[in-house]
Amino acid sequence: xxxxxxxxxxxxxxxxxxxxxxxxxxxxxxxxxxxxxxxxxxxxxxxxxxxxxxxxxxxxxxxxxxxxxxxxxxxxxxxxxxxxxxxxxxxxxxxxxxxxxxxxxxxxxxxxxxxxxxxxxxxxxxxxxxxxxxxxxxxxxxxxxxxxxxxxxxxxxxxxxxxxxxxxxxxxxxxxxxxxxxxxxxxxxxxxxxxxxxxxxxxxxxxxxxxxxxxxxxxxxxxxxxxxxxxxxxxxxxxxxxxxxxxxxxxxxxxxxxxxxxxxxxxxxxxxxxxxxxxxxxxxxxxxxxxxxxxxxxxxxxxxxxxxxxxxxxxxxxxxxxxxxxxxxxxxxxxxxxxxxxxxxxxxxxxxxxxxxxxxxxxxxxxxxxxxxxxxxxxxxxxxxxxxxxxxxxxxxxxxxxxxxxxxxxxxxxxxxxxxxxxxxxxxxxxxxxxxxxxxxxxxxxxxxxxxxxxxxxxxxxxxxxxxxxxxxxxxxxxxx
Length: 481
Ligand SMILES: Cc1cc2nc3c(=O)[nH]c(=O)nc-3n(C[C@H](O)[C@H](O)[C@H](O)COP(=O)(O)OP(=O)(O)OC[C@H]3O[C@@H](n4cnc5c(N)ncnc54)[C@H](O)[C@@H]3O)c2cc1C
What we know:
The chain is an alpha/beta fold and 481 residues long. It has 3 domains: 215 residues; 93 residues, Beta Barrel (Elongation Factor Tu (Ef-tu), domain 3), CATH 2.40.30.10; 139 residues, 3-Layer(aba) Sandwich (Rossmann fold), CATH 3.40.50. It has a 6-stranded parallel sheet, sandwiched between helices. A 3-stranded antiparallel sheet has the order 1-2-5. Helix 2 packs antiparallel against helix 13, helix 5 packs antiparallel against helix 6 and helix 9 crosses helix 10. The longest helix is centred in the N-terminal third of the chain and has 35 residues. The N and C termini lie far apart (56 Å). The model has no long low-confidence stretch (mean pLDDT 92). The structure holds flavin-adenine dinucleotide. The site of flavin-adenine dinucleotide has 24 residues, from strand 4, strand 5 and helix 8.
């Protein structure tokens, strides 16, 4: 089976492209025939243009585009999406404040009144609505867990508000932007608007097309541990999905008639050898997964994939593989282990697998065959082993990581980690402290809200900050030109 590697840009190219997209409208404005205004007006234009590009680009960094996430991974994609939102909003707020002009310190009320009048001016209503929507989106996303809102409702609301922000921002720019009356700038904004909205709509169109192309149906469904289900999907059309072991897809399975809306991400827990049958391992976690065990055999489902880059491909230069899985983080690992076994992997493979208790560990009937075929050493942990002598006490500790590296040169080992946030951070930092190079440590978090505090996350954050600094520099240079 050939692997499916679509064209996808590396991180540095994406960063350059992002910077170029912010720079382009600033350059078009700077070289236009429009005479520059005073320093405040130019600062407002610089911040407004940079902030608007960032706002619009938020639509494509929302994790559904393979061209973005295939190389840099879903964690980094979503991390950037969340990181960039407050910066875009701050630039939009700066745009408003600069437009209102300098604060009169001797009479601050006068400045506030001027700001209030400006916000109420009928001609600026679109911009104010865009800013209001964007302002409301940030706390909604940050405090989502605390709101009495199902995730599906949050996502629908988030998407509708995002489209609103894009629509009102564009209308505001095209009708009020001092530089947007010139044709090159107009063309840029219309093209950028279409460039971010159309791919979003295409995602749902692809879902619909895939529904008929593959015709996925529930072929098998059985419990494989406490509150953990094995769901096997079969392609009704006989067409195979091409993917790489460890990737994930978006499963939509609730509605009978339109099984494409409200999808959830799940790793493919089988090898790519037969892409007409996909195994998923699904842990009961909430509304959707809690009902997974009631799916009738034969039910038609939507599956949009493959996505993500959590694969062993990054570790081709490593001489040995260490895999650390926590809870349902075993799902992509199982697919990777099966794939390695089928390819006759000769490098040493070590697995640390931790669960809450013995009953929560995946059925050995699934895990043992690839481990045996690979001659892999497995360290099985449970927070509560309850008398099972083959299990060690969790959580994953430095001692377990050292044991997994026994007899190996850590500097030549590659690591794959998937599990709860705390475990992922501890395992990634622990392995790095024991000598595994950061570049050879890869992980995927199943929860975008988990705190990303590992050393590698900080390295990625530094790169985000560089992009943010570049955007600010561009806006400042435009203002001071
Ligand atoms: C890349 C990736 C791969 C995953 N692979 C697996 C897997 O193989 N097996 C498995 O059991 N779980 C996996 N998950 C987690 C799984 O997607 C969530 O547990 C599931 O969506 C929860 O939905 P729910 O309605 O049952 O629970 P809810 O109570 O609605 O959600 C619980 C939490 O799951 C997250 N979540 C819910 N819906 C979505 C969504 N549509 N998109 C993103 N996050 C969502 C949210 O953080 C939410 O707070 C994966 C997640 C990601 C991001």
